[in-house]
Specification:
alpha+beta, L,D-transpeptidase catalytic domain-like, eight-stranded mixed sheet, two-stranded antiparallel ribbon, 9 helices, about 30% helix, L,D-transpeptidase-like protein
Length: about 325
């Protein structure tokens, strides 16, 4: 009799525990009842999963633009910039490629805006692992969360580098983003997506036969640097292989991208932290690891920060540009 009572009691407490877990989940997750079952399996807070609020907003934006005829692409994108850029030596997967018709979901790494430290004026620089500062100020190098649509693509020659004993040209494509609301200045800010590759230590190499040579027959030459897992100037950056896939998907076929958090999310989480409130009880979301690192996020608006950046640049003009040296004559 006693063992039977203990068994019933154990079941009762387990039921209460399960109800509590579900209550917390419902308080922190926005409804995803219309999400297909195969996609629902990817929803969560673990590595490679997408948080409910991020999926809901990204999917809502995509379905809206699809219904309006603004996009026809069968895939859409999302990014959770509250997640860590680095997870113990491995790049954090926080950019999502979702193709519902094909039942395809993929989570890949992506960089966040590094921000700046304007000494004596404002410090809105971000660390390598977690982003604390967000904003849409021109020249801030910050990530601005919100709604975007991929637009035109610009491909440009960056220079030559050594590869396998031969010279190879670095041609990098840039996907322009069109924003709306607080991200409406995305084109002015030159915000978009590109591969995390650049050339460092540039010099001028004689190569008269190159289609990119200047009138004197010289081309830029440097060392190829892959900064995957690093920060950006506010753009969304991917590894070269991931960038190639994304560029192929959106070339002449625009789609939507929703980046979380928006300004309202940043401000709401900052207020909750200042008031000592639990995010789960207020229905707010932020990645727990990064929230512990940054303590509280901050949003820097273009209206407040833009004039400070402009004044700082006027007070600290860059030195006049210096011509690149001839390779081997440094």
């Amino acid at each position: 009799m006693r063992s039977r009572f203990a068994f019933i009691t154990a079941i009762h407490f387990f039921a209460l525990f399960l109800a509590g877990v579900l209550a917390v989940r419902s308080a922190t997750a926005e409804p995803t009842s219309d999400v297909p079952a195969w996609l629902e399996a990817h929803v969560g807070y673990g590595d490679g999963q997408i948080a409910p609020v991020v999926l809901q907003r990204a999917r809502g934006l995509y379905l809206q633009k699809l219904g309006e005829g603004e996009v026809r692409n069968r895939c859409y994108f999302a990014m959770d910039a509250t997640r860590p850029n680095d997870t113990g030596g491995a790049a954090g997967r926080r950019f999502y490629i979702i193709c519902e018709d094909a039942h395809a979901f993929r989570a890949i790494p992506a960089g966040h805006g590094g921000g700046l430290d304007l000494r004596g004026v404002a410090d809105f620089a971000n660390g390598r692992q977690c982003a604390k500062n967000f904003g849409n100020a021109t020249g801030s190098d910050l990530t601005a969360g919100g709604a975007y649509v991929t637009a035109g693509m610009k491909t440009s020659f960056k220079g030559y580098y050594r590869a396998g004993g031969h010279s190879a040209a670095l041609i990098r494509s840039f996907i322009q983003f069109e924003g709306e609301g607080q991200t409406a200045n995305a084109r002015e800010r030159e915000i978009g997506g590109h591969a995390t590759v650049k050339l460092a230590g540039l010099c001028l190499m004689k190569n008269s036969g190159s289609p990119y040579a200047d009138r004197d027959g010289y081309v830029p030459f440097g060392q190829l640097v892959d900064y995957s897992g690093g920060r950006s100037n506010g753009c969304t950056s991917w590894s070269p292989s991931d960038a190639a896939q994304i560029i192929a998907m959106v070339r002449n076929n625009p789609t939507t991208l929703y980046i979380y958090p928006g300004a309202a999310d940043v401000n709401a989480v900052a207020r909750a932290r200042a008031g000592g409130q639990s995010l789960s009880r207020t229905g707010l979301y932020w990645n727990a690891l990064c929230l512990n690192e940054i303590r509280a996020p901050r949003f820097w608006s273009d209206e407040s920060l833009g004039p400070l950046i402009a004044q700082f640049k006027r007070d600290h003009p860059p030195p006049p540009p210096r011509p690149l040296p001839i390779c081997g004559a440094r």
